[in-house]
């Protein structure tokens, strides 16, 4: 096929006359059933119906089954050498666009934070709105809200959050170190670097769990704590979920590394996981600045 | 069958209005509405001209440049000059549209310098008008009966209310709009005013009516079940007539103020409560108290309305914590009205509890707060 | 074949055409998946159409005849959601699936297995929407825009709708990634970006828009969900939130969304008109730039849906000017289509008729859009039937007509059969006439002051509503002609030649009819002119 300037060079591009198209697979259908059960179950559960948790649980179980099965197929195909330069390029494009979609997902919440702070709250505190909320003071971080009696405290930036920032940043470093190991064929540097990254991810998650506990029990800060509480939990919560997923992915990659998968030239699964991890890192930095600090 | 029935209804109701096909914006009665009307006319001419020109060229091609007319296709497919021309001309047209539009917008938005201010609050599904300068306030409800007969209470079907917003002509009226539950939109076409009423926020708009008359509109933002049944009527009167109306309104309000310490008998409460219920609660809980299954709970036979009296008072006074649809009626209704409607609910539809809740009970439940 | 067993796959596309139900359930073939998409979207079109007829039946005359107001609102809401997410979007994705690889010389979609997931997520989402009619409280009733805080009030139907939207989002994002990567990475040698067919460009840019805005929609409905169940106050002033914020985020998605439903239509028409005018597309390069500008501008105009929320004059002016600007690149497209017809040798088979119908009626809809974009005037027209008229002109006579055009155009290539031209022509004229009878009067209703989303109305609106309702039923009936034509022709149609249209010269017409199950297993060497016109083709392997 034509050379789109793929990194893998002329030889493999010339070799590759056929693009790999997987055979029929049952996993997509299984995944569809899983998401149906999850959607139905979640809606029923939220409305206190018995069927809800059952369907939700079943859905999650099916989803896990699907993910394991699907990725097993992918790994086998990869091991069998089905993916060459052009497939590799597809994966790169695909992962890049997937991360772009994630960026836009977070953008919605950053947009919401911006909107409440710069537009909604000042408006609620202005002269005209004394008509409705005579006592409201819109100073950020909000300690209360126009129609909420409870008082709560904001989360400071320089305690745990700063430590967590350091942890995530160094995890980015260890991951890059591992990547160098991969490229240079230093397997033990690779394995150690990756292992430490996974541990740092777990450490981050534990500290965040502790931070939530502290916020709920000592600061009186909950999801229902007005504009501050909702953006705080929503944004750090979605980020935390991404850290969790990223840690799981890195752990799987780590196991694959230990089993001797991947080569100096052929390790896109590793790189995809690394891209994802760096993306999650960058989101955290923005969170640190806009949610905790400013 | 249907068309026949329809024709009968139509001619029986208001023959003149209905059959005159309405093709354009309603006749404007404010400067803003007039500017909108004229602007729309201008835009219409421009767009019709564009349609005529573009389609003429296209149909000329369709008629002449067809294979069956023996044509063979010319193969040209590029011409930078024409591309530039047909980018530039629309741009110029748009500038020509934007200029008067900008002026109209700036006029619409200059809300200050008012002669009087009315606070308008949207509720599911009625409007409250609060004359901030004069201390007069009232609710405005749809009066068309909702039994599907197309009979009216004396005005146009679905566009009639018990208490219109009365305003003086020739005076700049500033409206401050807000809402109690969901977003509503206060719209009177002849005035050229449409402004969303947003719960928890205040928005403003203005109008100055030229000539006396009754102008009708309705809520223009989907606000739930009875969004289509939330009319707005503005009754513009000469300043003198307006002053008369205002004075009468103040007297009536003073007379209506009830003694909050009066002890009522159950039949009195029931009679009063039924009225309050039909004005405020019937939209959700229905006239027979059966509610709308899954959305609005039944009160007939409900636990709260048959046993838990304090819970009942709390629910009506402070609203539901779980579902914002059930509003805190304490903000809208007087102690007497709340006492009456609770007594009504506890004794109507077979809820024969015999409880007579008194205004002072409500006052106590408010804990001195209003 | 053990479909779960990955060990077999090393030998590329050896698996031949699978049979029976498994062929559809486990499909990794872009043509099969495309077919699934198209049938699904037709089923959704019928469902959404039946809801529309429910709306029109109630509005035939004043008074409440058929539905209670709450059910009426549910019908309106689900009609909008089903048509947008169930009928129009999947139909375009299905066409892209079917035709893109054929038009650019790719072996299949880039991620053939994920492609199957994109499709099979649609039926569950549709099912959740339909189930919601039967749960306590009924389906979502806050309009397809699901404005908070009305949507925080609804019953569990709203939750089902939110989860359905999540699933639809996952589906369309994956589908879009597939399209982007296929176009960027799998073009045959010689098929360069600035030569490829406009349909490929339109699909590429649309897919980009989908990836950019569907996550935003997912985000905002998630906020509604937490407001409903977890005590947050995103859209509640009592906690410092703002109902209007919902609208900003929603329309940041929503406006690009309307171009997601328009750009592929532009692409289709840019293939069909040159074919039947027997002339190259006029101004190919400017078409590419116009499409891109529309996409970019579409991110900067969202608040034109919110002129009555009470934003400052400066904001109104900004969004008004930006919106008006979109008329320029769209105008360029319209003029280019007309210039393509000019001095051509036109014939008027069904695809061409629908394409011309598209150009006419879309222009009318676009111009009413420009009138709406003038904020001062929109104050009178916002949330009236004028808006309903506007968007049905661009959606039904726009998106839907372009889809009919595409299906007739590519039907021979897809099925190997010819459709009945007579029935096709009947379908077009029938649709054209009744479409206008249905939706043109709505302009008058809106001007005269009839709000949208109401089940009963004041008596001066009676006449035009009756006309619109009759039109809607007749228009719907006409779609049966289409259905009959398709089914009959698939079964008993005349065999189609490789190239049934004299003027067709893009890549899909250079291969056999019906298209072989695995086309371009080995890519051909191409020499390509503007708009994907094939000048020379060497090699290429199919089976
Ligand atoms: C396919 C879908 C589609 C498309 C393509 C468009 C295209 C446009 N739309 Fe539309 N619109 C919708 C779907 C679409 N819309 C929907 C669904 C809604 C309602 C949503 C809801 O509330 O439920 C809506 C609502 C809507 C509103 C909000 C109305 C309101 O609620 O108050 C506005 C306001 O500005 C608007 C404007 C426009 C404009 C300016 C264009 C432009 O892109 C049009 C450009 C095209 C032309 C102008 C014609 C061709 C050009 C020429 C021939 C050149 C010469 C022309 C000039 C110089 C003017 N649209
Ligand atoms: C996306 C595409 C799309 C399409 C294709 C349509 C198609 C149609 N729509 Fe629309 N519509 C929307 C998108 C679309 N719509 C949206 C987004 C809204 C806004 C919702 C909201 O306010 O939230 C809306 C709202 C809307 C309203 C306003 C409702 C209200 O405000 O309360 C109306 C009213 O007439 C309407 C009518 C129609 C009709 C008659 C058709 C027809 O074209 C349908 C034709 C199809 C059929 C009829 C079915 C197929 C045929 C058969 C099943 C054969 C059997 C037929 C017979 C027995 C006669 N639609
Ligand atoms: Cu109030 Cu619609
Ligand atoms: Cu828009």
UniProtKB/TrEMBL annotation, chain A:
GO terms for cellular component: plasma membrane. It is an enzyme of class 7 (translocase). GO terms for biological process: aerobic electron transport chain. It is a multi-pass membrane protein. Keywords: Membrane, Translocase, Transmembrane, Transmembrane helix. It comes from the Bacteria. GO terms for molecular function: cytochrome-c oxidase activity. The chain crosses the membrane at residues 27-46, 52-72, 93-116, 158-178, 190-210, 230-255, 275-293. Residues 15-294 form the Heme-copper oxidase subunit III family profile domain. Gene3D superfamilies: 1.10.287.70, Cytochrome c oxidase, subunit III, four-helix bundle. It is found in: Cell membrane; Membrane. Its EC number is 7.1.1.9. PANTHER family: CYTOCHROME C OXIDASE SUBUNIT 3, CYTOCHROME C OXIDASE SUBUNIT III. Belongs to the cytochrome c oxidase subunit 3 family. This is cytochrome-c oxidase.
From TrEMBL, chain B:
GO terms for cellular component: cell outer membrane; plasma membrane. Binds a copper A center. Residues 268-349 form the Cytochrome c domain. It is found in: Cell membrane; Cell outer membrane; Membrane. Residues 1-20 form the signal peptide. Residues 17-112 form the Cytochrome oxidase subunit II transmembrane region profile domain. Residues 113-248 form the Cytochrome oxidase subunit II copper A binding domain. Pfam families: COX2 (PF00116), COX2_TM (PF02790), Cytochrome_CBB3 (PF13442). It comes from the Bacteria. GO terms for molecular function: copper ion binding; cytochrome-c oxidase activity; heme binding; oxidoreductase activity. GO terms for biological process: ATP synthesis coupled electron transport. Its main location: membrane. Keywords: Copper, Electron transport, Heme, Iron, Membrane, Metal-binding, Oxidoreductase, Respiratory chain, Signal, Translocase, Transmembrane, Transmembrane helix, Transport. Its cofactor is Cu cation. It is a multi-pass membrane protein; Lipid-anchor. Belongs to the cytochrome c oxidase subunit 2 family. This is Cytochrome c oxidase subunit 2. It comes from Craterilacuibacter sinensis.
Automatic annotation (TrEMBL), chain C:
Pathway: Energy metabolism; oxidative phosphorylation. It holds the Pfam family COX1. It is found in: Cell membrane; Membrane. It catalyses: 4 Fe(II)-[cytochrome c] + O2 + 8 H(+)(in) = 4 Fe(III)-[cytochrome c] + 2 H2O + 4 H(+)(out). The keyword Oxidoreductase applies. It is a multi-pass membrane protein. Keywords: Cell membrane, Copper, Electron transport, Heme, Iron, Membrane, Metal-binding, Oxidoreductase, Respiratory chain, Translocase, Transmembrane, Transmembrane helix, Transport. GO terms for cellular component: plasma membrane; respiratory chain complex IV. Its EC number is 7.1.1.9. The chain crosses the membrane at residues 36-57, 77-98, 119-142, 162-186, 198-225, 245-269, 281-303, 315-339, 351-377, 389-411, 423-444, 464-484. Residues 24-527 form the Cytochrome oxidase subunit I profile domain. The keyword Cell membrane applies. Coiled coil: none annotated. GO terms for molecular function: cytochrome-c oxidase activity; heme binding; metal ion binding; oxidoreductase activity. GO terms for biological process: electron transport coupled proton transport; oxidative phosphorylation; respiratory electron transport chain. PANTHER family: CYTOCHROME C OXIDASE SUBUNIT 1. Cytochrome c oxidase is the component of the respiratory chain that catalyzes the reduction of oxygen to water. Subunits 1-3 form the functional core of the enzyme complex. CO I is the catalytic subunit of the enzyme. Electrons originating in cytochrome c are transferred via the copper A center of subunit 2 and heme A of subunit 1 to the bimetallic center formed by heme A3 and copper B. Belongs to the heme-copper respiratory oxidase family. This is Cytochrome c oxidase subunit 1. It comes from Craterilacuibacter sinensis. The lineage of its organism: Bacteria, Pseudomonadati, Pseudomonadota, Betaproteobacteria, Neisseriales.
